[in-house]
Write a structure and sequence with these properties.
Blueprint: E1 36-42, H1 46-58, E2 64-67, H2 76-79, E3 83-84, H3 92-98, H4 103-124, E4 135-139, H5 145-157, E5 163-165, H6 167-173, E6 181-185, E7 190-191, H7 194-208, E8 211-213, E9 218-224, E10 227-232, E11 237-245, E12 262-271, H8 276-282, E13 290-293, E14 300-303, E15 309-317, H9 331-343, E16 354-363, E17 369-373, E18 378-382, H10 391-403, H11 409-412, H12 414-417, H13 428-446, H14 451-458
The protein binds flavin-adenine dinucleotide (FAD).
């Protein structure tokens, strides 16, 4: 079989999701920082907005200010794949490995949080194209089938109904030559439009009384006797009692102690033109699940509400020194397009109209790390490792409770209390990341974990999850 040439030409270099709404500031957002508030939330992504909502639900008299360096939706929360994956541990297998005694509790909390998000979307009228379609995880090589069986067992153990599809059944369902087997978990979350979701959360937070300030970067925090002073890039200041740092791995720029807690990876993704009826029918895939494969390529694919194809994969780039990229690498989208063409040869000539990158902050165990600074005045979380759409809700509740001096069930688990494993300093960090990527690719071809992968596994480091 010949693989059709990828067609990325014409892609406009920007994220797809913002194009689905008429752009305007979130209603009720203000242009200036107030002089003071009870709680300052830095970052208006999912973590910051869920934190503000949790704080105001607990105590409507609090003054809460949410400030973002950019516009709501410009960060990862507005441009991600929109997989609402009910996992707090970057996959149930990683959770079982790290927390054998508590992973069932963690799964229950993830299940409850998914229901809470669904109820919240309905109650607040947040129209973010949510589809509760569950997941379909595919083995794309025979040697991945054992891992797929283990996954099915883990899901059942964690309380998720599953269906196992052998080669004949998966190919009859999903018209692709790539999968050799699959596990369908029909109740494991769903798909949404991330931009509509984050803008909806922002509007809900404003309705509850939060002050939302866009385009103000916080550059410094100072502890003093009566609380914390936050300094903005434009010279403005705000005094508050407590701070929630909801900037994911960006926290390392403001709190030095967190600089080795996570590393930024630049993730390449893309979306096609609408498929149209004939192409859409040619795929099968009637239930529209979010699909992921079990290879080290971490392929993820889904359909948008208007039947475009979203494609993501292993094109995540680490830059020496954890710096941010100054140049994009178009060949990485070309590789994704080649991969998509191998999955669906019937889509020959499909145009990829949107392609973009975003930063995924990876922690060593692939699980977000919580912490406290400035004698309990500042609480933070970082390192969702590319799976934060749901986890951010539970994390935000932990942060809000700690800010109020209370706790949640999740906040008492090792999930939220363990010490983070730091990444090594450079140049070791760069070498370790490259080495791990190379080994994952090798293990992918052979099906045998390498010595390094086994070692990282023992150290509780999440390169393989
Ligand atoms: C391409 C891509 C695809 C992804 N796909 C998925 C997926 O399908 N499912 C999933 O579960 N997860 C996915 N993720 C991960 C998910 O998007 C993140 O884990 C989640 O959005 C993190 O939310 P957050 O609020 O913590 O951080 P962010 O969304 O990054 O928000 C942080 C905000 O803080 C602001 N900020 C930073 N520094 C400052 C400062 N100094 N002062 C003021 N504001 C500041 C930023 O502007 C930003 O808006 C993906 C990520 C990427 C990049």
């Amino acid at each position: 079989m010949t693989t059709p040439a990828p067609t990325c030409q014409g892609a406009d270099g920007t994220a797809f999701w913002p194009s689905t709404v008429v752009s305007a500031p979130v209603a009720g957002s203000v242009g200036e920082l107030p002089d003071s508030c009870d709680v300052l939330v830095v970052g208006a992504g999912y973590t910051g907005l869920w934190s503000a909502l949790a704080l105001l639900d607990a105590d409507p008299t609090l003054t809460v200010c949410v400030v973002d360096a950019a516009a709501v939706g410009d960060g990862a929360s507005g441009i991600n794949g929109g997989f609402l994956e009910p996992s707090l541990t970057h996959g149930i297998d990683n959770g079982r490995r790290l927390f054998p005694d508590e992973y069932r509790t963690v799964e229950r909390l993830a299940r409850n949080a998914t229901r809470d998000v669904e109820r919240f979307l309905a109650a607040e009228g947040i129209a973010c194209d949510y589809e509760p379609v569950g997941t379909l995880e595919c083995a794309v090589a025979d040697h991945q089938c054992a891992a797929l069986d283990e996954l099915a067992t883990a899901y059942q153990d964690g309380g998720w109904p599953v269906e196992i599809l052998d080669t004949a059944r998966i190919r009859a369902y999903l018209h692709s030559p790539r999968p050799v087997a699959a596990v369908r978990a029909p109740t494991r979350g769903g798909l949404l439009n991330p931009y509509k979701m984050v803008r909806g959360l922002a509007a809900a937070a404003v309705r509850r009384g939060a002050t939302l300030v866009e385009h103000h970067r916080i550059v410094d925090l100072h502890r003093d006797r009566s609380g914390v002073r936050a300094h903005g890039a434009n010279g403005c200041r705000l005094r508050c009692q407590q701070v929630i740092m909801a900037v994911d791995g960006g926290v390392r720029h403001l709190l030095r102690r967190t600089r080795l807690a996570s590393i930024p990876l630049e993730d390449y993704v893309m979306v096609s033109e609408p498929l149209g009826q004939a192409r859409r029918t040619s795929l099968g895939w009637e239930r529209r699940e979010g699909i992921a494969d079990r290879s080290g390529a971490f392929t993820s694919l889904r359909l948008t509400a208007d039947d475009r194809l979203f494609w993501g994969g292993s094109e995540a780039v680490y830059r020496f020194g954890s710096t941010h990229p100054t140049n994009l690498q178009p060949h990485r989208w070309e590789r994704l397009a080649t991969d998509a063409a191998a999955w669906f040869p019937q889509l020959a000539g499909l145009r990829w109209t949107h392609r973009w990158t975003g930063t995924v902050h990876m922690s060593a165990s692939a699980i977000p790390t919580f912490g406290t600074a400035m004698t309990g005045r500042v609480h933070y979380v970082a390192g969702y490792t590319g799976l934060g759409v749901l986890a951010s809700k539970v994390a935000a509740e932990v942060l809000a409770a700690r800010t109020l001096g209370t706790t949640t069930e999740a906040g008492t688990l090792r999930w939220a209390t363990r010490r983070a494993r730091p990444f090594p300093p450079e140049p070791l960090r760069w070498a370790a990341v490259q080495w791990a990527r190379h080994d994952i690719a090798k293990a992918d071809r052979t099906g045998t974990p390498t010595l390094l992968m086994t070692l990282l596994d023992r150290l509780g480091m999440g390169f393989t999850s």
